[in-house]
Write a structure and sequence with these properties.
The complex is a heterodimer of chains A (423) and B (459). Chain A is an alpha/beta fold and 423 residues long. Chain A has helices spanning 5-14, 23-26, 28-33, 40-51, 59-66, 73-76, 84-99, 103-113, 116-129, 189-193, 196-208, 224-228, 232-247, 259-266, 268-271, 276-288, 292-299, 324-327, 334-342, 364-367, 369-386, 396-408, 418-421; strands at 135-137, 140-142, 154-156, 170-171, 181-185, 211-214, 253-256, 289-291, 317-320, 347-348, 390-393, 414-417. Chain A has three domains: 5-99, Fumarate Reductase Iron-sulfur Protein, Chain B, domain 2; 102-302, no CATH class; 305-421, Rossmann fold (3-Layer(aba) Sandwich). Chain A contains 23 helices and twelve strands. Chain A has a five-stranded mixed β-sheet, with helices on both faces. The longest helix of chain A has 18 residues, at 369-386. Chain A is globular. Chain B is of the alpha+beta class. In chain B, strand 5 and strand 6 (106-109) form a beta hairpin. In chain B, helix 8 runs antiparallel to helix 13. Chain B is globular and about 70 Å long. The chains are: A alpha/beta (423), B alpha+beta (459). The interface between A and B is medium-sized, with 27 and 34 residues.
């Protein structure tokens, strides 16, 4: 008898599904493919077949279970509250435990991303060679023609100096007074290598508001791409390292400017625990995690009308894109809107389907780029309908994908993190 | 097993990507919205045009391969389960809204259009398609027509068949016929159109439909009326109607469902109430106000405990969301659920509800009641467990008696779900043998090789 340990853990969630099929309306992948294997109901049914011993981990099965953005739109709208994300992630973990990761993921996850120093070195190496990638505009480059088969992907440049190389271990409040609280800053890969300015900006913002900030250099990748792909072993290792990195710093909260990082750190307790001890540690860790959006409004209690718009954005029309990792993973949707609506000098327009996934889905966009573009196309329709000059969001992952698709669709919009808009 | 050569013929017709034979894909097309009917097809084909359907049907007819048309697979009768295997004709990619004709209040649609997508499109023109099966998020028009689906709006607006002006159908022989037309009145020979509506895909494949639309009502109002006795709630339904108010919807759920909904999504329903009725009135704003007042007055007069008028759209939406979650509430609570679809003349609702209560006692079972009280279509649900033989046997007996009771009270076995596989064993009991023979003869005439969705409706 096969050991179905990871599947056994999610069997109770799988049993929740009553096959009504309402998920089809909300699933971005189903909306493109119109096939039962694309949608939560079909995936869940097949996972149950594995549990029942009627289905093996065939390449087709791996493909089906891989083709999910984990955007959680189906789960959020499920009448019987099936947590299909846990079923999909659990199934991937089961598959990895039986079949291994495969060469590429094994290298990327375990040899690069799981090791802070190695990850930095590889990023440096890529940065040194990025001149080979043609410029699209400004700091955006794209894949050269000789790898056209991968599509003309636009992506932001890697920063000249990574955040890790310019950040201090401790920042005292700027007013010189006793700090009103002490927070740990979680860098995250995208902020570290691509958008170090957000990090510095947020640290500056916090210290201006009387907060002491510590940035431990023992922190690692949050592990999202890794454990969502089913590599729980590496995921747990990173979770333990990150928990440890902040453990003795005596911080009130741990904050980050990346929606994926904040939700991933919070959700260690949900997806990863293998025993009671781990569960307890991850649950305690979760209580301290705050995304930048909720931290400034809910914890620092800064009134939305007290934010000041940066001059260069004056007179612009803006719209908000809900990152899946904020709106559904953390139920953060009102805070950024409150800020945008209150900001004097810009006009806020809500986009249709603001909570629709941008199509990135982490490594999903690597394996299913054509689908990513189609799903992003619907997002682009929503953006066009607003007539906005700027698409605002709070997730570097979404930003990378939105920038690519705005350019592919030859649209004029710029994409910004909310923190970039305010002084 | 289907011949390899046939698969490649199908691939030639619709393209390789629209023919699925992987075992995983076949498993994913082995079920519908029911719990216990599972059968895998041998191939899943996604046609996108009438011509493609016709070519596929010609091959299937020549080779005598069973064909089961399928839309969103949201049905709850086993209707889209390929019971004799063969071909599943998945219509989900055949899904264009061809035309919305504002002048004539009609729309032309392909069979794979999902009802909610149609609703959103029609809203832009201030129109709507009244039949509202509660599976509208996934149900396709082809399936809705084939099942003659209904929903809460039936009280005032009727069911699907009242909104289909014409259809294009591919017959099992591959011939393409057009039944009905585009006009409101049409008496040209036998009304064949309505034989195909509610035929559950056993006569042909619907490839296009001409729908009758209504202008969206200008205003709506929702009332939640609370009762100490579910049978009194049932009586309120016809009291309101006989006093001259025809609400858009009247929905009922009993104490058990109320509490389960409150557990799932607390919205402040009265947990101690024996039942609530949800009313929705729609129309011209002034009329809506007056009708809402009238409903409050009549229901209070005939034994309601409390009337809550939704103060805004948000509150109204909460009530209707709760209603939609009703079935999930029931299904999530038991291993096996018999969701009945019996329908009685409205005046007999209290009798039917009381009978359900008696049966629950008699067989020591949980029988919960929710449904479209406004049109006499109740969904008593029996909670049981197929692996507990004694319990399950009692549940089966209770189900038999509920259906017999409905017929005794002048009602029918199924109001809107259809027979499919789920209700077959009762079909014989409640239908005159000559009528069944007539149906079988019609089927044999149109589908001589019995390839269209075989195994459904009668045993």
């Amino acid at each position: 008898m096969k050991d179905l340990k990871e599947l056994k853990k999610i069997e109770q969630f799988s049993d929740q599904c009553m096959k009504c099929g309402f998920c089809s309306f909300f699933c971005p992948v189903y909306q493109e493919e119109k096939m039962e294997t694309s949608v939560a109901r079909g995936k869940n049914y097949l996972v149950k077949q594995i549990l029942a011993g009627n289905q093996e981990w065939t390449p087709e099965m791996a493909n089906i279970i891989g083709k999910c953005l984990l955007c959680k739109r189906c789960a959020a709208n499920c009448p019987s509250k099936t947590q299909i994300d846990r079923v999909v992630v659990g199934a991937r973990a089961q598959m990895v435990s039986e079949k291994g990761l495969g060469f590429i993921k094994n290298f990327a996850f375990r040899k690069v991303m799981a090791n802070r120093k190695a990850f930095g070195r590889y990023a440096k190496l890529m940065q040194a060679f990025q001149w080979m990638m043609p410029k699209t505009e400004g700091k955006i480059r794209h894949l050269p023609d000789f790898v056209k088969s991968l599509g003309k992907r636009n992506f932001p440049e890697l920063a000249k100096t990574f955040l890790r190389d310019q950040v201090k271990p401790v920042y005292k409040p700027q007013n010189g007074e006793k700090p009103k609280m002490r927070v740990g800053f979680f860098t995250g890969c995208a902020t570290d290598f691509v958008y170090p300015d957000f990090g510095l900006k947020f640290i500056d913002f916090l210290t201006r508001h009387g907060v002491e900030v510590v940035v431990p250099d023992t922190q690692n990748c949050c592990g999202a791409a890794i454990y969502f792909s089913g590599d729980f072993e590496t995921g747990r290792m990173l979770a333990d390292l990150n928990v440890k990195a902040f453990k003795d710093l005596n911080v009130d909260y741990i904050v980050t400017t990346c929606a994926t990082c904040s939700s991933t750190l919070k959700d260690y307790q949900k997806y990863l625990p293998d025993n009671e001890d781990q569960k307890q540690r991850y649950e305690e860790f979760e209580k301290k995690i705050k995304d930048s959006m909720e931290f400034i409004i809910d914890i620092l209690k800064i009134k939305p009308e007290d934010f000041k718009l940066k001059k260069e954005f004056e007179g612009k029309t803006v719209t908000w894109h809900d990152p899946c990792h904020l709106v559904r993973y953390q139920n953060i949707k009102d805070q950024p809107r409150a800020i945008l609506k209150a900001l004097k000098g810009i006009k806020y327009v809500e986009m249709p389907n603001a909570d629709l996934c941008c199509g990135m889905g982490g490594s999903f966009s690597v394996y299913h780029y054509d689908l990513t573009k189609k799903i992003a196309g619907k997002k682009m329709d929503g953006i066009k309908a607003t007539g906005a000059d700027i698409v605002v969001t709070a997730c570097p992952g979404c930003m990378i994908n939105l920038v690519d698709n705005v350019l592919l669709n030859k649209m004029p919009q710029k994409v910004h993190h909310l923190l970039e808009l305010v002084e | 097993m289907l011949k390899e050569s046939l698969i490649s013929e199908f691939e030639k017709i619709v393209g390789k990507e629209n023919v699925l034979t992987a075992p995983e894909a076949l498993k994913a097309y082995s079920y519908d919205g029911t719990t216990s009917w599972i059968k895998e097809p041998e191939v899943v084909i996604f046609p996108k045009t009438t011509a493609e359907v016709s070519q596929i049907m010609k091959i299937a007819n020549a080779e005598k391969i069973p064909v089961t048309p399928r839309g969103g697979g949201t049905n709850v009768s086993g209707g889209s389960v390929p019971w004799h295997s063969g071909i599943v004709l998945a219509m989900t990619k055949f899904n264009q809204i061809v035309k919305v004709d504002k002048e004539n209040l009609t729309a032309t649609v392909e069979p794979g259009v999902v009802l909610q997508d149609l609703t959103l499109r029609l809203m832009k023109d201030g129109l709507f398609f009244p039949p509202d099966p509660q599976s509208f998020l996934g149900a396709t028009l082809g399936g809705i027509i084939s099942e003659n689906a209904g929903g809460p709006a039936c009280v005032k607006y009727g069911v699907t068949k009242q909104y289909i002006l014409g259809i294009e159908v591919v017959l099992p022989t591959g011939d393409v016929v057009h039944l009905g037309g585009r006009t409101l009145k049409n008496v040209v020979g036998y009304d064949l159109l309505h034989i195909f509506i509610s035929a559950e895909g056993t006569l042909g494949v619907i490839t296009k439909a001409e729908l009758k639309l209504n202008p969206l009502p200008m205003a709506k109002k929702t009332l939640c009326v609370v009762y100490d006795d579910v049978a009194v709630a049932g009586e309120s339904v016809f009291r309101v109607l006989e006093n001259g108010v025809i609400p858009g919807k009247i929905e009922l759920f009993d104490n058990w469902v109320i509490n389960r909904i409150e557990e799932m999504m607390p919205i402040g329903l009265p947990k101690d109430a024996d039942a609530v009725l949800l009313f929705e009135v729609d129309g011209i704003p002034e009329a809506v106000e007056k009708e809402a007042e009238k409903i409050a007055e009549i229901t209070m007069k005939y034994g309601a405990k409390e009337v809550r008028v939704a103060k805004d759209m948000d509150e109204a939406n909460k009530y209707w969301m709760a209603r939609r979650a009703g079935f999930a509430a029931v299904f999530g609570k038991a291993k096996t659920v018999f969701a009945e679809d019996v329908t009685v003349p409205r005046g007999n609702i209290p009798k039917l509800i009381n009978r359900c209560k008696d049966l629950a006692k008699k067989y020591d079972l949980e029988i919960v009641v929710l449904g479209h009280a406004g049109d006499g279509n109740l969904h008593p649900a029996i909670l049981t467990d197929i692996s507990n033989k004694d319990h399950y046997d009692r549940a089966v007996k209770a189900m038999d008696e509920i259906i017999e009771s409905a017929v005794e009270f002048g009602g029918v076995l199924s109001g809107e779900h259809g027979i499919g596989l789920e209700k077959q064993k009762f079909m014989k009991k409640v239908t005159e043998p000559v009528v069944i023979d007539l149906m079988k003869n019609i089927k044999a005439l149109i589908d001589p090789n019995n390839i269209m969705n075989p195994g459904k409706i009668w045993e």
